[in-house]
Amino acid sequence: MAVKVGMVSLGCAKNRVDAEMMLFTLKQAGYQLVADVAFADVAIVNTCGFIEDAKQESIDEILELASLKKEGRIKAIIVTGCLAERYKSEVMKELFEVDAVIGIGANATIADVIKEVLDGKKTELFPEKTQLSLCGGRVRSTPFYYSYLKIAEGCDNKCTYCAIPMIRGRFRSRPMDDILNEAKELSKSGVKELILIAQDTSRYGEDLTGKPQLAELLTKLCRIDEVCHIRVLYCYPDRMTDELIDVIAKEDKILKYIDIPLQHCNGRILKLMNRHGDRQSLTELIRKLREKVKGITIRTTLMTGFPSETAEEFEELSSFVNEIKFDRLGCFAYSPEEDTAAAKMKDQLDEDTKKHRQEIIMEQQQIIMAELAKKQIGRTINVICEGFDRYAECFFGRSKADAPEVDGRVFFVTEGKKPVIGDIVKVEITDTVDCDLMGYYKEISEQ
User: Fold this and answer.
1) Stretch 366-386: mean pLDDT
2) How does pLDDT run across 18-53, given as a tens digit for each residue?
3) Homologous superfamily of 146-372 in CATH?
4) Which of 80, 19, 92, 5 is nearest to 47 (CA)?
5) Which CATH architecture has domain 4-131?
């Protein structure tokens, strides 16, 4: 009987793609994949180690599996991903129930590692990060109608608060032909939305040719007949060139949605973060995007409580949020990460101040998003149907203005013919609930 393997993948979509590639390796090796790790012989936790909350989530997941192991329900626990890469041997010393810890460069050896742990061998394996493959088969874990498409690995930006370059290594772009081939195959298989991801998608190609090639990549993706929609995440503001903006504006297949993590607007704080720009330059960028790309949805990420952030600098950030009125926004309280430059800076703020400032930004944003949502009432928009909520007794899905997992939903009712999951349907918006939209299903859309 085949060994049953289950995996829990935590953190970002980039980590999810790594997990999908490991699952493909295991499937090819003859292991039986199970969706619920509680029914597995071997449980893999593909961890996140980006910020303190993510690390704690990873540890909690491992401890939960450890209790199943003590009960005899699973035989072994393997830890992979960012937490494993960052803390290496410390993981097994602190969590003795773990049978193997492997770094990201060892992902391709996951099948052999399972053999070792089932033979009773405790395994630690940390080859060079560059051995993490950018290409290869995947067992997709997303719904059939959308898929993440990782175009690069690692990061060269060296933001002072971020441990990603230490964990993931230098920025490495994936060969363009390989991306295009996978995009074509995914689209042929029924994927309607390709979501481009990397730590910094806007840097794509710099390491290959000396200049960013995201605009060229997007143009070539749009020339693939089978490709329906393309969404771009994680573009850094200093690389949002006119060429890139023009491509987003003119190509119909590119969703008019852009995710630009700004982190702050104050020039001094941004400089301390080793990032570029100030309130004036960032405001100008947003103005240009909204002027050139009609109807664009702009998502950003901000950080409060960075070392030495004054009350006045926070007020500037708060004012900036109210002025710009971002369509989508996430805000995090600064978390000092070991071995980063920011963690060693003077004037670290207390946790209550950092979190209070975060709450203020998010409360502002909730008001802004609720106001923006009300402006959608009376419009008819395209929504990809994602399921039926039996408690609310209505269907739900996402508009083009909403990315999976991070943005809102559109709820809608219908009479007569019902849509199926994956259909793109026309929905007339009739009301809002907080920041989500509600409406009435009209018909299937052609795109």
Assistant:
1) 95
2) 999 999 999 999 999 999 988 999 999 999 876 777
3) tm_1862 like domain (3.80.30.20)
4) 80
5) 3-Layer(aba) Sandwich (3.40)
